[in-house]
Specification:
binds adenosine-5'-diphosphate, Rossmann fold, binds magnesium ion
Length: 207
């Protein structure tokens, strides 16, 4: 079982992943969480380059290849071996993030983005993806509550984020057999319940 979580920053991915991990572990499943970019020694090194606040000159093309390079390593070194042993893998962002941010957000040609995904993942696709949908205003509200220091991507302007949000909307429409849109502006507990419900509906939990 391979599950991914998507959505803009502060939409609640990490919160929901922790709740789901606990739920599945209580059911006796072994659960691995992977965080993108990262999750292997090489991918974490790439993560440092991507998230370094000094790297403001990084061009969009470099950005997509670095994310995809980190993902290629993660798929082969971690995700596939874990899945083949029958474990649950939960990804905190996967290739849909690259489509939304580098494709729709940065404007890299979407057909090229798809081809890059094919090379990076080699066909390893989540069984189900939860898109936690919140507005830009809600994201900013949560961000202000946390007063975090923003990285290069988080500092992109509001138009960029609006494009990312519409990108996620389009992705959800184009992949409705895989991507489940969840209203992320409700309480964490209510969202968690809905996620469990959707997993049961798709009978992913019984496999
Ligand atoms: N459903 C929710 N309603 C309100 N605040 C939330 C909700 N889920 C998470 N948060 C808060 O919003 C912030 C971002 O949540 P987090 O799970 O880290 O999001 P992400 O991993 O998507 O960036 C955290 O401070 C978290 O406590
Ligand atoms: Mg997070």
């Amino acid at each position: 079982m391979f599950i991914s979580f998507e959505g803009i920053d502060f939409c609640g991915k990490t919160t929901q992943i922790e709740l789901l991990k606990r739920y599945l572990e209580n059911k006796g499943r072994k659960v691995y969480i992977v965080r993108e970019p990262g999750g292997t020694v090489i991918s974490e090194r790439i993560r440092e380059i991507l998230l370094n606040k000094k790297h403001l000159e990084m061009c969009d093309e470099t950005e997509i290849f670095l994310f995809s390079g980190a993902r290629a390593q993660l798929v082969r070194e971690a995700i596939r071996p874990w899945l083949s042993e029958g474990n649950v893998v939960i990804a905190d962002r996967f290739f849909d993030s690259t489509t939304a941010y580098q494709g729709y957000g940065r404007g890299i040609d979407l057909d090229s983005v798809k081809k890059i995904h094919q090379i990076a993942t080699g066909g390893t696709v989540p069984d189900i993806t939860f898109y936690l949908k919140i507005s830009m205003a809600e994201s900013i509200k949560r961000q202000e509550l946390r007063k975090t220091d923003l990285d290069r991507i988080e500092r992109s302007n509001d138009n960029f984020y609006e494009r990312v949000i519409s990108g996620y909307e389009q992705l959800a429409l184009d992949n409705n057999e895989r991507i489940v849109t969840i209203n992320g502006s409700r309480s964490p507990e209510v969202i968690h319940e809905e996620i469990i419900e959707k997993l049961n509906e798709k009978m992913i939990l019984s496999s």
